[in-house]
Amino acid sequence: QLARRNRTEIGLADAHQVAKCSLDGQRRLLPRSGNRGLVHGKEGPAVAGRRELSADLVVERATKQCGILAAMPSSMRKREIGGRAKSIDRPVSNTTGTLFLTTGLDAFYEHGYDGTTVRDIARRAGLTVAALYYHFSSKYALLVHIITRGMEDVISEMTAARDGKDDDLAGQLVCLVGAHVGYHTSRQKEAFIINTEIRSLLPPDRRRLVAQRDRVERMYLGVIESGVKAGIFRSTVDPREITRATIAMGIHVSQWYHDGPLTPDDIIVRYATLVLDMVGFRGNVASAVVRARRNP
After folding, report:
1. Cα separation of 72 and 98, whole Å?
2. Which residues are CB-neighbours of 1 under 8 A, at least 6 positions away?
3. 72: helix, strand or coil
4. Which of 37, 38, 46, 44 is nearest to 20 (CA)?
């Protein structure tokens, strides 16, 4: 009920604020025959015919024809239009916000970011477009939230796995592989979006994602370099190359894995064995993997 009452105040107001980013952009939103009436505050025939234009369609057109303002996170958009826009992004701490994250995730996974509209996401949730705008200022804000949360989770899981092995470098490496591959088998949709929709991110958000990826790389690289220095790993291959190969293997699991003869645990054991072979582990590889998996 709140979302319905606030449809004009929240959904349409925010969408039209974006649509007014420039006079030129505003004119391009409507056919030429209706531009003059709109600019002079009068409702021309084209304007009247579009009086019921929905909030999501306004935003989609603003995104494409007014530049990239509609796609910007609210904080960036505020700076771009002189501080007049008010952020309506809200913490996702309730079932409605979580539902939009789920339906948005499904839609982006099936159709891609560009092939999805806010109307598609709202329809999947069985709610109104205005309700979506109550929680997220734009489709782009929803995408950024999904990607950011996903990367934070994989970093957290990998950190906890590594830190649980103290000074056992082989065990740390096995557990890093386990957490990384485990994430990409259990949360395939998020992993897929994280690794394909970087193309849809604006520069600040792309830089943040790259920085998060760098953290994953540093975790692997730190353990491998420590093992080489300690004489536990004997490979003469550059540790950075081994790290990149290990990360690439884990990432691509999300693209090919489906329920079948191999379980996620089977894949983790095989990949951990491959990685210990790549680094030239001096001990018994099979025993090291089993020991690390037995006491994660």
Report:
1. 21
2. none
3. coil
4. 38
